[in-house]
């Protein structure tokens, strides 16, 4: 079935909000270095744009976990596909996610990262679907709270497609 994409957040809205989060992080971490941990693949577009707008020193690392197949429903299974290259000891870690949905992925991930002895771990997500939360996770920086719609663009995919859209769109199947 062919799907249709409807704009939820324009490129300008997303860019403006990322600038605001970058400014906030730069203020909150004044005098420190932040270590951004990108959750692949979805978080990659957001992390690159955000990192460019942070004015304190930044280092980056990537990890990949899988919780979704080619479907729009959570499997509830979290698996580390690619681990970080660098240790987290004494670092000011900010986990960068595309979206927090059920919270299952993040809850697992944050516990695992905490156990590696960072100075602190914060969570920054471009999108949050609070209505869908199953596991409680504390989000420190949120781009936008959105309704319970399946969204794509800015790193988010539907069956690996649409990650490259420069805006956030809703997938419609009518
Ligand atoms: P959670 O563990 O249910 O919070 O799932 C988080 C992950 O599910 C995200 O990092 C995305 O990869 C994926 N996901 C959740 N909702 C959406 C959506 O609306 N569009 C695309 N991917 C989504
Ligand atoms: Mg993700």
Structural write-up:
The strands form 2 sheets. This protein has a 6-stranded mixed β-sheet, with helices on both faces. Strands 1-9-8 form a 3-stranded antiparallel β-sheet. Helix 2 links the parallel strand 2 and strand 3. Helix 1 packs across helix 2. It is an alpha/beta fold. The protein has a single domain, classed as Rossmann fold (3-Layer(aba) Sandwich).
Q: Measure the end-to-end span.
A: 9 Å
How many individual domains? 1
Strand order in space, largest sheet: 4-3-2-5-6-7
CATH architecture: 3-Layer(aba) Sandwich
Total number of helices: 3
Structural class: alpha/beta
| Residue share in β-strands | 25-35%
Describe, in short, the structure shown.
With 174 residues, this protein is of the alpha/beta class. Helix content is 22%, strand content 32%.
What order do the helices and strands come in, and which of them pair?
Blueprint: E1 4-9, H1 11-28, E2 34-40, H2 43-51, E3 58-66, E4 79-82, E5 92-100, H3 104-114, E6 120-128, E7 141-145, E8 151-152, E9 168-172
Parallel strand pairs: 2-3, 2-5, 5-6, 6-7
Antiparallel strand pairs: 1-9, 3-4, 8-9
Residues 39, 42-43, 97-98 line the site of magnesium ion.
